[in-house]
UniProtKB/TrEMBL annotation:
Range of residues in the leader sequence: none
Protein name: 3-isopropylmalate dehydratase large subunit
Function in brief: Catalyzes the isomerization between 2-isopropylmalate and 3-isopropylmalate, via the formation of 2-isopropylmaleate.
Pathway in which the depicted protein is active: Amino-acid biosynthesis; L-leucine biosynthesis; L-leucine from 3-methyl-2-oxobutanoate: step 2/4
Lineage of producing organism: Bacteria, Pseudomonadati, Pseudomonadota, Alphaproteobacteria, Hyphomicrobiales
GO terms, biological process: L-leucine biosynthetic process
A Pfam family per the record: Aconitase
Length: 468
């Protein structure tokens, strides 16, 4: 019998084109997603060297970061954004790449539309000039975020230069309590291993609590692998993944589907496969999580308080956490439930999918957004928006006083007009809480969609396990 291998090893081996003696390898890329922020120089490079896109049919472009989330029939208020959007449209046309523009009903955040279209498939290698490409690993795809020069390399050759990463398994067993979600799982993991804990590793999430997650929940977990420093995150595909993908526009059909499923069934880590590191978590013990600082590792339980950085022994660490507290305008010892909000953002490639909107709507139904809060809901894609509207979720939100917007990255990173003002405090379902991430001097607390919706209504954080 051959040596037991991990899921990562299998996908890697199936795509390896060449390996040099020092381990530098060339891997074949099956799927390339392109957005407007990291592609202009890559296309320019192709033009300068007179190259074509090697496999346009394996490339899909969409505009997401710069689009306004207000009425798009009006001119874009930001000329720089408008220019970046126009450049992508022109490049897609020139190089013969399929492109979802800002008026296309399929437009949305790149990591939402890939799976939604069945472009992302188990066992494939997926790249995008975007760090949260790890999202696609939820389907058992090896998905790497790449830089602009690599985008050019993939466009030209359909291959990527990589060194093999180490394997880490994250086992999450037990049953998640009601009100605790995939977002709380991944924030807890990052709280545990730190933002550098995954450096040099591809993480495979396993265990009963991961298996029990929907594809949306799994994507949330894999999405934030990168916040834990990892190169990618993976979950072995199973019936849940196949059901999500079946019948999607770009999924295989008929006999090709059956053959694909037979191959996908082989995509799991063998018993006895070697992992360089393994960590374990009991889902039953997890509370809803709220971040208090300026790093995703700064996690607190909803029942907890803002920690006291003065108690940290390591000086660099102490200074950095003191600075975070200062930036966030918080005092050590403040109960998390006493933190008041000015803004709420529900959306992003972490938590802007239909299940996320359903969870938020369930909390918002029949309630009213607090008078001190401006809360916005930004669906992850046009298809998510349509689905939500078909289910009447938009009406629930609008009636409660939420602002119902057009799809895009929006205030996840504030590259469009959706921004926090200095010192505004926001409960956000996104994945990054760095200084200035949602606007200059803006203060971000990362939470799950239900926690964000409840905070919008109460005006402060609340424990949704006690929501009624
Ligand atoms: C703009 C893009 C390069 C960036 C990324 O790579 O992640 C963005 O999506 C983000 O979330 O910060
Ligand atoms: S939603 Fe946020 S994290 Fe995701 S791709 Fe857009 S900017 Fe990056």
């Amino acid at each position: 019998m051959s040596k037991p291998t991990t899921l990562y090893d299998k996908i890697w081996n199936d795509h390896l084109v060449h390996e040099a003696e020092d381990g530098t390898s060339l891997i074949y890329i099956d799927r390339h997603l392109v957005h407007e922020v990291t592609s202009p120089q890559a296309f320019e490079g192709l033009r300068v060297s007179g190259r074509k896109v090697r496999a346009p049919e394996k490339t899909l472009a969409v505009v997401d970061h710069n689009v306004p989330t207000s009425d798009r029939s009006k001119p874009n208020p930001d000329p720089e954004s408008a220019e970046q959007i126009a450049v992508l449209a022109e490049n897609a046309k020139h190089f013969g790449i399929e492109y979802f523009n800002e008026f296309d009903r399929r437009q949305g955040i790149v990591h939402v539309i890939g799976p939604e279209q069945g472009f992302t498939l188990p066992g494939t290698t997926v790249v995008c000039g975007d760090s949260h490409t790890s999202t696609h690993g939820a389907f058992g795809a090896l998905a790497h975020g790449i830089g602009t020069s690599e985008v050019e390399h993939v466009l030209a050759t359909q291959t990527l230069i990589q060194k093999k990463a180490k394997n880490m398994r994250v086992v999450v067993d037990g049953k998640l309590p009601d009100g605790v979600t995939g977002k709380d799982i991944i924030l807890s993991i990052i709280g545990e291993i730190g933002t550098a804990g995954g450096t040099g590793y591809v993480l495979e999430y396993a265990g009963g609590a991961i298996r029990a997650l929907s594809m949306e929940g799994r994507m949330t977990v894999c999405n934030m692998s990168i916040e834990g420093g990892a190169r990618a995150g993976l979950i072995a595909p199973d019936q849940t993944a196949y059901e999500f993908l079946k019948g999607r526009p770009k999924s295989p059909k008929g006999a090709a589907w059956d053959a694909a499923v037979r191959y996908w069934e082989s995509l799991r880590s063998d018993d006895g496969a070697h992992f360089d590191r393994e960590i374990r978590l009991d889902a039953a013990k997890l509370p809803p999580i709220v971040t208090w600082g300026t790093s995703p590792e700064d996690v607190a339980s909803i029942t907890g308080s803002v920690p006291d950085p003065d108690k940290i022994a390591d000086e660099a660490q102490r200074l950095s956490k003191q600075r975070a507290l200062n930036y966030m305008g918080l005092t050590a010892g403040t109960k998390i439930t006493d933190i008041k909000l000015d803004r709420v953002f529900i959306g992003s490639c972490t938590n802007g999918r239909i299940e996320d909107l359903r969870a938020a709507a369930k909390i918002a139904a029949g309630k009213t957004v607090n008078a001190n809060v401006y809360a916005m809901i930004v669906p992850g894609s046009g298809i998510v928006k349509e689905q939500a509207e078909a289910e009447g979720l938009d009406k629930i939100f609008i009636k409660a006083g939420f602002d119902w917007r057009e799809p895009g990255c929006s205030m996840c990173l504030a590259m469009n007009p959706d921004k926090l003002k200095p010192e505004e405090r926001c409960a956000s379902t996104s994945n990054r809480n760095f200084e200035g991430r949602q606007g200059f001097k803006g203060r971000t607390h990362l939470v799950s969609p239900a926690m964000a919706a409840a905070a919008a209504i109460a005006g402060h954080f609340v424990d949704i396990r006690e929501w009624h």
